[in-house]
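Predict the 3D structure for this chain.
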Amino acid sequence: MIKACIFDLDGVIVDTARYHFIAWKALADELGFDFTEKDNERLKGVSRMTSLDILLEIGGLDLPKEKKEELAKRKNEHYRSFILEMTPDEILPGAMKFIKELKDNDLKIALGSASKNAMTILDRLELTSWFDAVIDGTKVSNAKPDPEVFLKGAEALNLPPSECVVFEDAEAGVEAALAGGMKCVGIGSPEVLGKANLVVPGLHEMDIEKLSRL
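Done. Predicted structure below.
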């Protein structure tokens, strides 16, 4: 019996990808080279330092570790300046309705996100109070497809993984959920997320009935 839902943040509840792109582009501009949306495709689902290495490769730059750490910090400052301007209007279609439906049916809700800015984003979206537990990048040491973030979410809810459903938009996230012994709903394309128990284009396509059939 399903008793809880654990949500990834970016691409499921909100889309911050454009803010990451703008922040990386600003950094590239400062370094004196162009960074395009096509280039940005290579950064999706990649850690901040690996993303920086790709960016520097595109710019033909080889920098020492100390300089790279400084640049990664600067990129995050750019990004944070953007997300501090976010509003509840940026919640993806159907997310709020589904979250309310879960609460009305006494299901618990947790966040399982690798982002270290997750709490800031939830606060800006006025969503923090809806979550019974938040596991973000400050509380985990292993990246997806390791199931750590979701297992910690289940633990924080005092539930076994088998009673939790994960909502994910990335292949590595789906693999993490399944590795943790949880059901998973993929948000996006069946071609990419085919391992999930169910794939829908967005939370606007989810309801309690579909959840109960998993």
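The mean pLDDT is 95.
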